[in-house]
DNA sequence: TGACTCATGTCAGTAGTATGACATAGATTG
DNA sequence: CAATCTATGTCATACTACTGACATGAGTCA
């Protein structure tokens, strides 16, 4: 198979494997979200708002791993399409708290089912113990990388 | 900390963690490659060519997780800048085997040092055993996701 | 209080990558 | 052998997210 043909460095590189895994996950998610007319960031934004209503543009950006400029563009389209609402002017400062509309919540429900099935497929074949160590390992990598 | 504040669903989602880790790795790599005038795909392409000379456009695309169209654009610029060479016409079929030039090899050397330091930082704080289980876990996720 | 720093929302421009489409070479199959 | 399928290289186009930049509000501190 291709794994035997590939150079050893590639196979021993956790960075390469991490990239491969994230690409595989992204592809799988795009595949199930595309029929619903959603991108991953689009879905992530709605999901985040469902769990933590009232989040601001910048907070949503951080939670979905995009810049606040990108999230701003997305929020404008979501607002135009009636999935979220923001007050015309900020209650305090410049921060505009965002809320899901009923339409946004309905749209999210379908997407959540689709995404959950992808995640379940990803984790199939892993025991609870294996999932736990994967969690710890990923957390460690994240912490080491972000720590400056 | 933010981990305590965040919703439980987020923290228990390995998919979310996987995305966070890959974003952290990508940012860290972009940070060290930018001063060298390289993107991640740019570096990955050179690295792959160093390990497996003569790879075609499509093979490089698969190895770096982009489409063959994107890789084609990149290869044209790499060829224009003298980092790689391709024969004017295909020895067999339509496949054009690509080779690193001396200039490309020199350029790659600096990048390799920078990227290796990032990977080492990512793995700092993980034992060999932890790295091994992370390897197995990621491999399992990849296999499950790609398996259709 | 006034100067400074930081975070936010937003606009404009750019870069990287993807999708769609086409022609062509090799492999497969009847 | 002819027809079909698969893979490749490439062009044109579109989209997603980024960087740069600006004005403004809030906290900090001398």
SSE order of chain A: HHHHHHEEHH
Q: With helices defined by DSSP (H or I, 4 residues minimum), what is the helix count of chain A?
A: 8
How is the main sheet of chain A built? 2 strands, antiparallel
Average the pLDDT over all residues of chain A and give the rounded result: 90
Structure characteristics:
8 helices, globular, mainly alpha, DNA-binding, WH_DNA-bd_sf (chains A, B), Arc Repressor Mutant, subunit A, homodimer, 3% strand, MarR family transcriptional regulator (chains A, B), disordered N terminus, DNA-binding transcription factor activity (chains A, B), HTH_MarR-typ (chains A, B)
Description:
The structure is a homodimer of 148-residue chains. Chain A has helices at 2-5, 8-12, 14-33, 40-51, 57-64, 68-80, 102-123, 128-146, and strands spanning 84-85, 99-100. With 148 residues, chain A is mainly α. The first copy, chain A, has one domain: Orthogonal Bundle (Arc Repressor Mutant, subunit A), CATH 1.10.10.10. In chain A, strands 1-2 form a two-stranded antiparallel sheet. The radius of gyration of chain A is 18 Å and the shape is globular. Chains A and B meet through helix 3, helix 7 and helix 8 of A and helix 3, helix 7 and helix 8 of B. Chain A binds a DNA duplex (30 and 30 nucleotides) through helix 6.
């Amino acid at each position: 198979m291709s794994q035997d043909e590939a150079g050893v460095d590639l196979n021993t590189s956790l960075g390469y494997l991490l990239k491969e895994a994230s690409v595989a996950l992204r592809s799988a998610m795009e595949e199930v979200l595309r029929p619903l007319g959603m991108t991953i960031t689009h879905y992530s934004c709605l999901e985040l708002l469902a769990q933590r209503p009232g989040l601001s543009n910048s907070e949503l950006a951080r939670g979905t791993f995009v810049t606040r400029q990108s999230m701003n563009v997305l929020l404008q389209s979501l607002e135009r399409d009636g999935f979220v609402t923001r007050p015309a002017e900020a209650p305090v400062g410049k921060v505009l708290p965002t809320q899901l509309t009923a339409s946004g919540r309905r749209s999210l429900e379908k997407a959540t089912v689709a995404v959950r099935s992808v995640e379940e497929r990803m984790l199939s074949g892993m025991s609870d113990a294996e999932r736990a160590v994967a969690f710890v390992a990923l957390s460690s990598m994240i912490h080491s990388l972000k720590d400056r």
